[in-house]
Design a protein that fits this description.
Elements (H helix, E strand, L loop, with lengths): L1 E19 L2 E15 L4 E6 L4 H14 L2 E3 H7 L5 H14 L19 E2 L6 H12 L7 E5 L5 H14 L5 E5 L6 H11 L5 E5 L7 H7 L5 E2 L2 H5 L3 H4 L4 E3 L1 H4 L2 H9 L5 E3 L6 H15 L24 H7 L1
Amino acid sequence: MDLSLTIKSFSFKLQNSLKTSQGAIKKKEGWLIKLETKAGKVGWGEISPINYEELKKCESILKALGKTFARETLEKNLPLFPGSLGFGLGAALAEIDSLIDFKDNKSEFADEETAFLLPTDGSIISELESKLHCFSNSSKEITIKWKVSILPNKTEKELLNQILYLLPINGHLRIDANAGWSRNQANDWVNYLKGEKRLEWIEQPLASNDIAGLTELATKVPIALDESLIDYPELRKTWKSWQIRKPSLEGDPRILLNELKNKVGFRTISTAFETGIGKRWIEYLATLQRQGPTPKAPGLGRGWCPNCELFSSNPELVWRSA
């Protein structure tokens, strides 16, 4: 089967800069793709790497692919491509094959059904208080995600105490160090939080290659992997604790789609700030995860991307606005 490929570039700034221990994310750029068969079946995809090196590599591969190619060639090379490129092309192929049903492009997630990502500037506590006020008359449980290893450790420990004081007994806290802690620092936090029932997990407390250290920490509190799963994909089959899956960065989404359809547990879905074309997949996979054996609120990054047609659930509108 021959396929034709059309590409459009996009770029947008986040509403606020997202600081992590590895630097700040201020904008996203990449490509929207449209794959079409000779029979006229269309599949949409998005390629939006998180780092510049992968962006340039994807650009080079896209140029080499050309405008038309055999599907068999694409399928053979797909596992060798960078994760973000594998996601975009795999998503388009899945749509051509009708492996997914986006239900007329309507999102099933209300804002309060996703984890709330705290800001990474000085407004952490005031934003938390504001969000908690919104939940005060609701029966829904709030889930908070907090990125650490950004401010001095002493300051973040003080913020932790304030967050725990404010968080209701039925609230949930996720702490994300983005691989920024040493073993000593991670053990200090783990020992402090051990027994805290509102802690869902600590995400990627150590470097992605410190599997021994991560495994040891997981004997004390739930440890979720993120960066390790991108750098060492084989861990997606062997890590028994939580996995933070970012579909738009990890490659062909048909693999994760199959896992979730087979009710594999201990996965949660997280955004890497996609346009509407990629967001359809994030929310679709998150819906499957919530129907599985270990349902959790996804991390959809509400409020961090602009409010415009580039983030519409209708791929035609997204394509037109790029």
